[in-house]
Amino acid sequence: MTTIRQTIADLARLLHAVGAHGDHLAAFDPHPEQLDEIAADLDQARRLLTRARAALTGPRCPRHPGGPVDPTAGGTCLLCATYRRRGQVQSEVQEQDVDAPLEVVARTVAEYGQREAMRRHGARTVARALVHHRLDPALTQESA
Length: 144
Fold this sequence. Notes:
The chain is mainly alpha-helical. α1 runs antiparallel to α2 (32-56), α5 runs parallel beside α8 and α6 crosses α7 (123-132). It has helices at residues 4-27, 32-56, 78-86, 90-94, 102-112, 114-121, 123-132, 137-143, and strands at residues 69-70, 76-77. The N and C termini lie far apart (61 Å). A two-stranded antiparallel sheet has the order 1-2. It is built from eight helices and two strands, in the order ααββαααααα.
């Protein structure tokens, strides 16, 4: 397994070779074999760059493998850091009843308020329920 230093050194060497190809192209007429060699070097440089970038982004969150990194939280997952800041445990987010009928969600808003409904059903489901039932006078009077 190569280290990040080795990957970056290989990338630097390859980029130098690509630059030499550019100098050669400017001075002479290229042959198809030379263009194929340049294409292969560029492909390899792209792969090395991807590998170096992945190694430098730091550890990835197992719950959000492609998620953004939070620079203010020591390079941890931005989504998990946001949940921690809110005091919301990750399991609470996953236990939300997003498949509840909109009438049930609207009734939860009317009885317990919008925050509790969002905790129970999720923000998107509550928003859909409020839009769907926006003309229901009982809902607007009780939750106000």
